[in-house]
Amino acid sequence: MFLALRDGGSLYYETFGAKGDWIVFLNGIMMSVPSWKDFTGRVSKHFRLLLVDFRDQGQSSKRAGPYQCAVHVPDLVELFDHLGIESVHMMGVSYGGQVALEFCRAHQNRLKTLELVTVLPKVSNYLVAMGEGWEVAAALNDGARFFSLTIPSIYSDTFYAQRLEWLKNRQNAFRKTLTPEWFEAFIRLSQSANRFDCEDVLPTIRVPTLVLCAEKDILTPAKEMKEMAKLIPSATVLEIPDAGHAAFLEKPEAFLTAIIGYIKSRD
Amino acid sequence: MFLALRDGGSLYYETFGAKGDWIVFLNGIMMSVPSWKDFTGRVSKHFRLLLVDFRDQGQSSKRAGPYQCAVHVPDLVELFDHLGIESVHMMGVSYGGQVALEFCRAHQNRLKTLELVTVLPKVSNYLVAMGEGWEVAAALNDGARFFSLTIPSIYSDTFYAQRLEWLKNRQNAFRKTLTPEWFEAFIRLSQSANRFDCEDVLPTIRVPTLVLCAEKDILTPAKEMKEMAKLIPSATVLEIPDAGHAAFLEKPEAFLTAIIGYIKSRD
Amino acid sequence: MFLALRDGGSLYYETFGAKGDWIVFLNGIMMSVPSWKDFTGRVSKHFRLLLVDFRDQGQSSKRAGPYQCAVHVPDLVELFDHLGIESVHMMGVSYGGQVALEFCRAHQNRLKTLELVTVLPKVSNYLVAMGEGWEVAAALNDGARFFSLTIPSIYSDTFYAQRLEWLKNRQNAFRKTLTPEWFEAFIRLSQSANRFDCEDVLPTIRVPTLVLCAEKDILTPAKEMKEMAKLIPSATVLEIPDAGHAAFLEKPEAFLTAIIGYIKSRD
Amino acid sequence: MFLALRDGGSLYYETFGAKGDWIVFLNGIMMSVPSWKDFTGRVSKHFRLLLVDFRDQGQSSKRAGPYQCAVHVPDLVELFDHLGIESVHMMGVSYGGQVALEFCRAHQNRLKTLELVTVLPKVSNYLVAMGEGWEVAAALNDGARFFSLTIPSIYSDTFYAQRLEWLKNRQNAFRKTLTPEWFEAFIRLSQSANRFDCEDVLPTIRVPTLVLCAEKDILTPAKEMKEMAKLIPSATVLEIPDAGHAAFLEKPEAFLTAIIGYIKSRD
C-alpha cells in the first residue's frame, strides 16, 4: 500500500494481522518491507504489524539529499495518523533503531514500548569510516562487488561457516536487483547517519525499552550497547550469542523470542 | 496443595492461572515454591503455571539419602498424572534444569518445550568442589554463615553493588528460617548432583529448547552453556548480560522476556 | 633472612640473583615467600629478586589488629633502606597489588616500574562479601574446610578440570599446615582490605605500569581491571586467558612472559 | 640488502643488532620492512633482528601467480642459509604467521621458538569472503579507496576513536604510495592464502610457542586462536585487550612485552 505524503512524496507500507496492539518494524539501511517476509506470520499472531519503507528505501519515493535520519520521523507520524494508530510498539534495527531514537525525542507519547536492536545512540569514528567504505562500494554501482565489500562486516563468521550457500544466492540477488537508483538512495541514507547523536535522548526515555545486542556485532558492539542501556531508565537487556550485526536474520528464533516476549511478558 | 505419593511421601505444589498451556517451573537447589512469588502473576496470564517443591525442598516430604537427582522424575510424572497434565512446557533453573534433562531422558513425549536456565549437562570438577564447600557450609547449621559462604558464588558483583540492602535482608531471613532439617535436606540434594551427567541426552532432544545463560555466571558459565546448546538440535540461545547464576532473580524482566517469549513466539 | 624492624617486629625476606635491577614480588593474602619457589630461578636470571612476607604472613612477626593494608608500606621502606635498594620494580599480586598502590601514594619515587596483577583499586561490595565468607571460613580453624570454602573462588574451572590431583594435595597441605595463629593472622589481613580505596592514586601514577588481568578471575574481573588501566596514564594491559584469580600459578609461563617482558622490553 | 635467489628472484631484508639469538619478524600481507621501524631499536637490544619482505612485498621481486603461501618457505631457508642462521626465533603476524606455520611443517628443527600473532591455522569461509572483498578493493587501483574498504576490518573501533588523525595520514600515504604493481602483487598474496590449512601441523609443534591474540580482532578472533592454542602442545597464550587485528601496531608496548618476554623468560 502507498501513502501519499503531504509534501508530495509517498511511503510504501504493509500491514499484517487483525488483533492486538500495533507494532512497527523499522528497517535497517539495506532493508525493505520484503526483508521481513519470514517474520510476518508469527508476529501477526500477536500484534497488528506495520512494515514500512523509509523514503529512499524499497518502494517508497526517493528524497533529495543531503538529509539527517530524523527526517523520517514526520513521515512515520503521518503514516500512524493515516492508519489511526494512536500508540505503537516500535522496534528498530540498526538504522531503524536510530530513527526510533529520533522518534522518541519528539513523540515518545505515541510509543507503548521501544525495542532497540543492534543500534548505538551515537555514530563513532569507526562507524563513520565503515560508512565511507560502504559509500565507496555503492558508487561502484555493482551489486556483486557491493556485496563482497560490505556484507562480511554485517554477518558473523559463524553465519559464513554455516550458511555459505544462502550468502552466495544473496550475492547473486544483489547483482541482479540493485540499480543505480538504489545505490544513489543508499548513499543518501548512509550519509544521513554520519552525524547521528541521540545520547541526550537516552535518559529521557520513559517507555519500557528492550536493548537487544549480538555477541559478534562489530558495527554496534554488544559492549557499547550495554553501556547505552545503563543510560536508559529501566532498560531490559538481552544478548544473542554467536551472531553478527544481522542478528535478527542470523538467529530469527532468538530475535522473535526477545521481541514478542518483551511485550507479551508485560501484558 | 499436597499430593500423597504412592510410596508414602508427599509433594507440595501450587497452580496459578486458568487458561493456556501448562508450564512447570523446576526449582534451583536452595529454592522452594515461594521463591517464585514475584513471577506467578505475569506468567499465569499466559499459562497454567505449576510450581512444585522437590522432595527435600520446601514443604514436600523429606527423603532418605543418598540418591541421584533423577529420583525426582517419577514424582513429577505422578504429579502430572494427578493433575491430568498430558504435556507441559518445562522450565528448569540450575538443579531444576538437571532434573528437566533427566526427565527428557525417559519422558520427552510429555514435553511441549524445554527451557534450560543456568544449567550444564554434566557436573564438572569445579562444580563438585563448589558443592563440597556448600556441604561444609550447610553442616555449620547456621543460616547467616551459610549465606556468607555460598551466596557470593551465586549472585554477580553487579547485584552486590546495586542491591546490598536486599542481600542483607536475605541473609537475615536465612538466619531466622533455615533449620537443621533444612540443612540436612540441602546436603542430600547437593550430593544427589555430584555424579550428574546428561551429555548423552542432548542429541536426543527433539522438543524445541531454549538455552538461557548469564554473562557473569561462574557456576554454569555462559561459554559452556553455549557449547551445550550446539549439541541440542535446533536450540535457541539467549544470554542475560550482567547477571550471575541467580540471573532469573537478578534480572527478572530479561528472564520473563525469554521464557514467555520463547513459547509465545512459537504459537 | 630476618630484618628486625624499628618498632620491634620482624620481616622475613629472601633475595635471589646477583645482577640487574631489583624487583620485589608482593604476596597475595594467603601466600608467603615459598609460594614463589618455582619462579625464583627464572626471575633471578634477569633481576635481583626480593621476596618478603608482610607481617601476619609466613615467617614475619604477627601484628596487632585491626589495621589497614597501608600499614605494610613503612615496613617495605625500612626493608629497602636496609638492603640499600634505592629504586625497585614492584610486582604485586592481589593483596600485594593493593599494598603496591598504597606504596605508590607516598613513595612513587622509589619505583622504577609497577606491575599490578589481579588487583582492583577499590574493594567492592562483592569483595567485602567474599572477604566476610573467608573470615567465617578461617574462624573454623580447619585447613581442609578452609580450602573447600575459599579455593573455588580463586582458581578457574579449567584449573580444576586439569589439575585436580594438585588441588587435592594442596588441600591436604592446608589441613596439615594451617595453625590457629595462621587463621587469626589471615583474618586480620583480610579485614585490613575491607575499606581499601586507591582510586585517587591511579591518575597520579607516573612510572611505567603493567596491568595484568585474567579472563576467568571472579574476584578482580578483567573487565574492571581494564577500566582501572584507563585511569593510569600510559598503562600497558595484557590478559591471561583461561585462568582465574590465581593466574600467576595457573599459567606461570604467561605470568613470567608478561612480568619479565614488560621490564626487559623497556631496557 | 638484497639476496639474489637461486631461481632468479630477489629478497629484500634488513638486520639489526649485533648480539643475542636471531629473531625473524614475518610481515602481515599489507606490510613491508619499514612497517617495523618503531620496533627495531628495542628488539635489537636483545636479539639480532631480521626483517624481510616476502616476494610480492616491499622491495623484494615480484613472483608469477597463482601460488600458495608455502611458496615463501624455501625463500626463507635460502635467506637463513645465506646469513648463516642455523636456528631462529620466528615471529609471524597474520599472513606471516601462516608462513611460519608452513615453515614449521618442514623446518621445525631450525626454530628455537615460535610466536604466532593474530593468525589462525586455517582460512575460514569468513576470511575467504573478506579476502574476496579485499581483492575487489585492490582491483580499483586507488590507495585512498582501498584504505576505506579494508582498514576498518583491521583496526579496532578504539583505535579509530583515539587515533583518527594518524589513520587519515595513513590513508593519504596509501593514496600516494600504492602503485598498480603493488595492487597486483597484493592480489596474488591474498589469493595465496585462500586454501591455507595448517591444522595438521599444530599437534606436531615441539618448539615453545606463544599464541598472541587480540580482544577485538574480527579477522582472526581471540576465541578461535585460543582453540588453536589447545592443539599446540605447551602453548602459552596471552591476549591484548582493546585492540583489533593490527594489535602489534595499536598496542606496541603490549606486543613487545609479549614477544620479548616470552623469549627472555625462557633463558
Can you describe what's shown?
The structure is a homotetramer of 267-residue chains. Chain A is an alpha/beta fold and 267 residues long. Chain A has one domain (2-123, 197-265): Rossmann fold (3-Layer(aba) Sandwich), CATH 3.40.50. Chain A has helices at 40-43, 72-83, 95-107, 125-139, 143-150, 157-162, 164-177, 180-191, 222-230, 247-250, 252-264, and strands at 2-4, 10-16, 22-26, 48-52, 88-93, 111-117, 209-214, 236-240. An eight-stranded mixed sheet of chain A has the order 1-2-4-3-5-6-7-8, with helices on both faces. Chain A is globular, with a radius of gyration of 17 Å. Chain A binds chain B through residues 42, 45-46, 210, 213, 215, 222, 226, 236-242, 251, 253-254, 256-262, 264-267, and chain B through 42, 45-46, 210, 213, 215, 222, 226, 236-242, 251, 253-254, 256-262, 264-267.
Question: Can you tag this structure with a few keywords?
Answer:
homotetramer, 267 residues, alpha/beta, Rossmann fold, eight-stranded mixed sheet, globular
* pLDDT averaged over residues of chain A: 97
Which chains have the largest interface?
A-B, 29 and 29 residues
How much is the radius of gyration of chain A in Å? 17 Å
CATH superfamily of chain A: Alpha/Beta hydrolase fold, catalytic domain
Principal-axis shape of chain A equals globular
Compressed to H and E, one letter per element, the order of chain A equals EEEHEHEHEHHHHHEHEHH
The largest pleated sheet of chain A is described as: 8 strands, mixed
Strand order of the largest sheet of chain A: 1-2-4-3-5-6-7-8
Distance between the termini of chain A: 30 Å
